[in-house]
Design brief:
There is one protein chain. This protein is mainly alpha-helical and 307 residues long. Helix content is 57%, strand content 3%. Helix 5 packs across helix 6, helix 5 packs parallel to helix 7 and helix 6 packs antiparallel against helix 7.
Length: 307
């Protein structure tokens, strides 16, 4: 007899691009806003470090490191956190959640698409209701009526609470699946952040205040050797060039390279991937235990366009 297990529908392994980008946006906004990094990120990340970080930092890739914990925080804020309850410990609504009724409708539409991509359970009535609000609001938005604006915003304000409850219902009914697919988003976000060396440096400094979970020594003692995967992961980001002077060590194999702690161990830096870069021997010797401003790893043609 044939094994029919293979025919079972499996949750999609694709990312919902809108959600993935939003998580990235939340990560960047949160850690660079002193108000956030001083409060909600501080506690959110501290909690996530304890929950998802592996104290044996050298046995895993970005899957269980600091960036993974940071992504866990952002995923919780954007995807899992229930709105109608305002479940934050201090009772305040998340600043990262869509706050205006209009933004929340866009969020709900996006969430429905995300749910379908991952084959989450959405009750007929819930789906019909979200679609109805979506359609009616578009009608009001496109209306030629002089008072369209008034009617549009009034309508969204009126439906806001029910809409939040509807989304919370989807979250509740799919709690387990939402946690199962989280790994996809956590890894994707970790990789995005990792590729931005300046952002990594920023996080490394922030993490000193937050502290490390579990067996702290492994995070802060100089390791005897580095695992191969770690060196390879850094090589990929640096594209074979010294992170400081840019000398190409892929083409010139006579150049010796070192794995450098962006924030030196003596200044509280840690061994996690977020705090590491590759320097040529000359730069590494000059740097020693100093704290240098990190150079961007974003190619010039991109960073210039962003300005
Ligand atoms: Zn160099």
């Amino acid at each position: 007899m044939k094994n029919n297990d293979n025919l079972a529908i499996k949750p999609s392994q694709n990312l919902h691009v809108g959600t993935a980008l939003k998580i990235f946006e939340i990560t960047i906004a949160a850690i660079q806003d002193p108000q956030e990094s001083g409060t909600s990120v501080y506690y959110g990340l501290k909690h996530a470090l304890n929950v998802v970080c592996d104290p044996d930092v050298f046995s895993k890739t970005t899957r269980k490191g600091i960036l993974y914990a940071l992504s866990h925080f952002a995923y919780n804020e954007h995807v899992l956190r229930e709105d109608s309850l305002y479940s934050a410990e201090d009772g305040s609504p998340s600043r990262f959640h869509p706050s205006t009724p209009e933004h929340f409708l866009w969020y709900a539409e996006d969430f429905l698409e995300f749910s379908d991509l991952h084959q989450l359970v959405v009750s007929k009535s819930c789906r019909a209701y979200i679609n109805e609000v979506s359609e009616k609001s578009s009608e009001k938005y496109e209306s030629e009526d002089d008072y369209w604006e008034h009617e549009y915003y009034d309508y969204l304000r009126y439906e806001n609470r029910r809409l939040r409850i509807a989304i919370d219902q989807i979250r509740k009914e799919n709690k387990i699946q939402l946690e199962e697919i989280s790994d996809l988003y956590l890894r994707s976000n970790s990789e995005r952040v990792f590729n931005d060396r300046e952002l990594c440096s920023w996080i490394s400094s922030l993490i000193i205040e937050i502290g490390f979970p579990g067996e702290t020594r492994k995070w802060i003692d100089r390791p005897k050797s580095w695992p191969t995967w770690l060196k390879r992961t850094l090589d990929l980001r640096e594209k074979g060039k010294c992170a400081n002077c840019g000398v190409d060590y892929f083409s010139d194999i006579s150049i010796t390279t070192h794995i450098d702690h962006i924030v030196p161990l003596s200044k509280g830096g840690c061994n996690d991937l977020v705090n590491l870069q590759i320097l040529c021997e000359t730069c590494n010797t000059k740097k020693g235990a100093y704290l240098w401003k990190v150079k961007s790893s974003i190619p010039k043609y991109i960073s210039e366009r962003l300005k």
